[in-house]
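Researcher: Here's the sequence for the chain we discussed earlier.
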Amino acid sequence: MAQSDSPDNHITRTPGLRGGEPHITGRHISVEFIADLYLNHHLSIEDIAQNQGLTLAQIHAALAYTYDHLGEIQAIWHEQERLSATDAASRQQTAERTRLEAQLADRHPDRHEKLIGLRAEDPRRDMTVPEIAAEFNLTEQAIRKAAKNKAVPARKAGRDWLIKRADALAYWGGLRTRGRISSRVAQP
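Model: Thanks. This is the structure I predict for it:
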């Protein structure tokens, strides 16, 4: 249920929407976004209203909320900056790893092949649903169902499920063995 944060009902907090941050009632436009446009990018109130399809009253309510709760808005900005810096560092690290791996593949193809093989067997490696389906001869639907029902530890990445290789082995690894053993005919 939405909770109004201003007497004129222009500003609302809705659990699950924008992380519970205050936003314009009936819209997905956050107060901090309006404040950022006005305070940091120096756009006029009229320009913000026109560009975002809002009324002047909604913009003024967002700015009034900002000034009344400046510490909260600044905390949101600091968290966004922290996440952005972490994301940028991760992208830079990934680019460096990719460059070094390409260099290894060019100079020592045999070592590169071995690295790829070791990486595939790493129990900490995240596996996608199609990878697990191929390796354990399962349907993707069965894997998604197990992840959704928390039968196997998994995490969502966008629309996809990621499961650690060790967890996949623990949950489905015995199925391969049981299938092979049960298909054998006992010798008298």
